[in-house]
């Protein structure tokens, strides 16, 4: 373990499912701007934003944090992994762009349910061997995310890591941040997943995969469904149906323990919902995670 890491850095529990993908080179920001849903070139250096990679049909392949660390360095924090596959698919679009894709096995991601020491909102602090600190919470639910050398984070037991990862995932869902299992990729539009709450896509910037469908849905007001947070009385799985009065109403996009994000019609009655034949209670989403 490096001797120059601050104690607070070492103490953070790792988030084992998170992976990191760097885009480096003079065309890194321009390439990311053309591929992802957020306005990358308008993002100041040492700041981050939510973003997504969409299919040509406007369906969400991945939701991630996009960090603009330098003029020639963009990093993606992929909470749901799959970095190697995404890098391989992105490589097909590089052509003559001066950009190199790298999955970071040398770096790790960790978190804590405490307010950041220095980072605030979208502003990133730190860098190099000291790692980066990000504000991933709000006043209602403070959280700090740290990125740094893999050997710099304390290793807990498998059970402790799993419990912390579940708590972190549940906090994501409480903020309305979708966590997409493989079965839910290329299923939902950004509007259905509520990425507007996170400022996760732009309808003003130039073309990117799926942009035309996203813009049309936005400007014509055709979004009829969005995520709602549910507390389920029995374990649910992504893809499970949500019923109301015996009729199909929508389906679950993300699950974390007894919490779920379900894509449901914007207008529904107050009648009880069921998932898997048992009751599911609506819960309010937390604000404050938009960047």
TrEMBL record:
<feature type="domain" description="CAF17 C-terminal">
    <location>
        <begin position="224"/>
        <end position="280"/>
    </location>
</feature>
<dbReference type="InterPro" id="IPR045179">
    <property type="entry name" value="YgfZ/GcvT"/>
</dbReference>
<dbReference type="InterPro" id="IPR017703">
    <property type="entry name" value="YgfZ/GCV_T_CS"/>
</dbReference>
<protein>
    <submittedName>
        <fullName>Folate-binding protein YgfZ</fullName>
    </submittedName>
</protein>
<keyword id="KW-0809">Transit peptide</keyword>
<dbReference type="Pfam" id="PF25455">
    <property type="entry name" value="Beta-barrel_CAF17_C"/>
</dbReference>
<dbReference type="InterPro" id="IPR057460">
    <property type="entry name" value="CAF17_C"/>
</dbReference>
